[in-house]
Amino acid sequence: TMVEAPLLDTWWSARGLTPQTGSAATSPGTCPPGPPSKPEVDKVDGHSVTVKWRRPAEDGGSDIIGYCVEKKEKKAMGWVRASKKSIAELSYEVTGLTEGVEYEFRVLAENKAGFGEPSEPSMPVRTIVPDLELDVELRRTLVVRAGCSIRLFVPIKGRPTPTVTWTKEGGPVPRAVIDTTESFTIVSAENEYGIGEAVETTDPIRASQAPTPPESIIPTDVTKSSVSLAWTKPKHDGGSRITGYVLEAQKKGTDQWAHVTTVKAMDFTVKNLNENEEYIFRVMAVNHSGRSAPRESKPIAVKDSTSLPEFDLRGVCQKIVIAKAGDDIKVEIPVMGRPRPTISWQKDGAALKLTQRTNVETTAATVVLSINECNRADSGVYTMTGKNIVGSVIDNITVKERDKQTCLDCC
To answer: Can you point out the beta strands (E) in 37-166?
Structure first.
């Protein structure tokens, strides 16, 4: 057999071969399998990564007997085999990598007919040891009075998000509560009572940061003496659990804010307001480090009124949600309208079927569409209908799967 062009890859599929007696011919209808899914990379350090993938959509007519992982530097032309032996699992740790270099990975599946076409290359990933950004104050010896507690807050940098563990002198931290987010890690622990004579530090130690403000605040109902408000949680909690929300009010045209309430919930009805007055409300998230910046509402006139439902889709770029196969989707959309509208959903013109993977939720301020481990069947147009006594409003979002599965033509 002659190859028409030089080979840059480490695989090549020969087709149109004629089986002969005594040869290793496969059974009729069997051909190499299709490509596995686009591999994902995690557990990255300076010299190794772990690659994960899913089985091919087509097995070529016989069972998959193994996989081969290939690697290449991002700027290189040719692929190099990363696994010496056939891999039976759907993940593999690639070792012997050079620190600080960007790599791509792909996977080939094998059946009795041989190796099939390779998967799409993974996203480029740079081998690098995650950084811990230790505040200069935390590099000093921390002295705490006997019987008191300590709280340490450390920002994290790393891609993908590193796994963080805490130890004390090589062992577990006693009486500790550890909280780790994508950007911060915090350990809270009691001091060992009665050890030594201790004094407090003269300089304060930063424990965490204030959270970001709530994402939105909207009126859900208005009467001639009250306003019902709802808000959404902050994008980031500052590295510490949100303990509550502070709500304040201001008459339009004045510069004085009045405290209304502090609540743990994300909604509240402000009563005993003056009819026909306009008010501005603001809400702040609170954690152990303090308050966030405020999120203000638009001026609200206190009077019996009604309004059509309205979906705020500014947070969904061009009303399109794009996700790769296997990703989880969660779209949260603020909803306005007085009285509070009821919401119904459709997909591609038919009532949306709720399953263990697909779910919708209505909160005091938003509607939420959740799809776990999305696949091609989840792509389509999702229609929201909001209805109250004033009327109904329809709006759409489109879900698109980024990966395209290709099937092998088996003659």
So the answer is: 40-42, 49-52, 66-73, 80-81, 91-94, 102-111, 114-115, 125-126, 131-132, 149-157
The CATH code of the domain that includes 238 is 2.60.40.10
Q: How many domains does the chain have?
A: 4
Residue 40: how many other CB atoms lie within 10 Å: 19
Render pLDDT for 115-130 as a digit per residue (tens, 0 to 9). 999 999 999 888 876 6
Output DSSP code: residue 168. Answer: B
* pTM for this predicted structure: 0.38
Map residue 319 onto helix, strand or coil.
helix
Residues 219/227, Cβ–Cβ less than 8 Å? yes
Q: Hey, how many other C-beta atoms are within 10 angstroms of the C-beta on 74?
A: 12
Give the domain range for residue 269: 214-302
Query: What is the C-alpha to C-alpha distance for residues 58 and 68, in angstroms, rounded to an integer?
Result: 17
**Inside any domain, residue 167:** yes
- C-alpha 71, offset from chain centre: 27
Spatial distance between the Cα atoms of 40 and 227, rounded to a whole number of angstroms: 48
Task: Please state whether beta strands 217-222 and 80-81 pair in parallel, antiparallel, or not at all (unpaired).
Answer: unpaired
